[in-house]
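Hi support team,

I'm filing this because I wasn't sure whether my run with protoporphyrin IX containing FE finished correctly. The job status page said complete, but I'd like someone to confirm that the output block is well-formed before I use it downstream. Pasting the exact inputs I used:
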Amino acid sequence: MFQNLFKSIAANRVIRSIFRVGVPRSNLQRAQAAISSFLLHVQPAKVHKNVLKFRTTLGLGLITLYLFIILVVTGILLMFYYVPSTEHAYQDMKDLEFVVTAGLVLRNMHRWSAHLMVIFVILHLCRVFYTGAYKAPREFNWVIGVGLFLVTLGLSFTGYLLPWDQLAFWAVTVGTSIAGYAPVVGNKIKYMLLGGNIVGQSALLRFYVLHVIVLPSIAFFMISVHLFRVRKDGGLARPEEPTALQKEHILSQLPQSKTYGLMELARGTTPAVGIRQEDEVFTWPHLIFREMLLFLLVSSVVLLLAIFWNAPLEEAANAIHPPNPAKAPWYFLGLQELVAYSAFWGGVVVPTLVVTALVALPYIDRKRHGVGVWFSKERKVAITLFSICLIAAISLTVIGSLFRGPNWAFQLPWKTVPSEEFHP
Ligand code: HEM
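And here is everything the job wrote out:
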């Protein structure tokens, strides 16, 4: 019965006018399903079977993408209830909790997806590094990725201020003061960000506009280019993929009839060159089903987190009662820890060096060893250096988060000193 119902729905004229191919039954229709759909045509009709293996990417790029989508949807819904004014913002948070139906779950979903997106973008960056997937021809996509990493931090940081509670106010006060340490331009950047010298109404409005329009638009544009390039750079990195020279050779061996030549020229930048037919699978249904499953999984985890775990909301922002210590958001706590030793090194030199090194990496490390292989032995030096930096960054963040108490003095997390008892 269900099969007949399904068939008649698929054959319906209105449905056919939207989904041209219907449910694909032949290989030709499977290819058409991917090519003729607006959403699916980002992917080729066929992909290398490695793409289906979970261990190739651990799904990290896709998870980051899905979290971004969840953030956009929940963010738009939150905009219906939120006014970016110092008089209303905090009350709007309370209303979300006590007045708006499912408002708290909505806010929680947005908050936890934002934290998860920062975590997953870092994990994705590490996966791309450890599989050597930043090497030619993917150098520029890595650079776009570094941009996306910074935009993700920007998105999360600008959102942090919006609840206008003590946590938001002081985290942003500390975060923006780190930006102020840059020589010559530092204070100007800080002034531009805040629209003044302190966090107030102008800062809230600027952060709001950056958070809901400027940065999401940049992220959307960059993600589109990023995904386009994943496809045009030959799909995901794999050990046996031909180099640019080999691709050129393969193409030169093809018959030169006019249309065929043009087709192949276009295919020179697609996975089709250098992939044996027996290594390919149809995107529909093999890849699409896995992608849909992952989306369901990510949304369910975010929803469960949001149901069982509330996003923090402290007292309303109070500019004359700073908490001791005032801490930046967790992803900047490594920097804050460094700033405690030296404002110039922690606030300027180290972040500049890290971003420059990340951007320059694929142009410095050019040997094609270990592409598409996890922890390749041929890349021992690069892997060791990267891992040392990663461990240092994680250690600084953990120290800043858990081992710093009033006046930034060292304290064990299980022996927290209440601030009123603290005597420096
Ligand atoms: C908003 C942030 C990002 C999103 C949504 C995103 C999304 C994706 C997706 C969906 C893929 C396909 C494979 C996969 O799932 O892993 C991918 C691949 C890739 N990403 Fe990202 N990415 C982001 C940030 C980054 C960052 C921070 C870097 C590195 C600095 C990066 C570098 C790359 C590279 C080089 C590839 C090709 C990898 C390969 O061929 O194996 N991406 N990205």
